[in-house]
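Thread: "does anyone have the structure for this chain?"

Original post by V.I.:
We have the sequence but no experimental structure in hand. Need at least a predicted one for the grant figures.
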Amino acid sequence: MIKYLSPEVLLFAYQQGLFPMAEGRNAKQIQWIQPEKRGIFQLGNFHISKSLRRVILKKDYSITINSCFPKVMEKCADRSETWINDDIYNCYCKLHEDGFAHSVEVWRNSHLIGGVYGVTIGAAFFGESMFSEAANGSKIALAYLHDRLLKAGFLLFDTQFLTEHLASLGAIEISQAQYLVKLEKALNKNAIFLDINYSSDVETIAHRSTHRS
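Reply from O.Q.:
Generated one for you, tokens below.
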């Protein structure tokens, strides 16, 4: 366990295959996690169900990038049990200011209904957390995030763990050894999350892959 956390320590840890968690909102110590199994999205294999496709095509929402990173973190931490303590919150906000941490926000009628945030190093995106305050809010955010990472040439979309929610969208589980191989390749390539040439196409996102739902 490490009591002190800094943006520099965070970036170093990610490059070793580690990520931090606190035992609770008021916890003073940080645990460094390196699970035997890692969750990832294979870029290009994000699954859009028929029901989610209809939601995306309805376009009754808007997407922003990095418009309110601290707010996304606050909403991700706003639950009965959270691993985001003050040190983690402050360090990721500093990483955001330094250009390493990013958020995708989903809005409806000026209300923030979903979002996801994570860290980028090289061509790796380390997904940290997401939230949803309306049906499909986080799924929409993930669909647009995946599209951005794919088009920007990222090689790794790390989800840390595999949950039922992520598995329904196409995430898979691999061994830590397999993960470290992918991580090394991604760290040796440069990809730009805020690529000025990126443009999202709703039709492409919605029809990328479908399965029954």
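V.I.: this helps a lot. The domain at 35-211 is CATH 3.40.630.70 (Aminopeptidase).
O.Q.: and The chain is about 35% helix and 25% strand.
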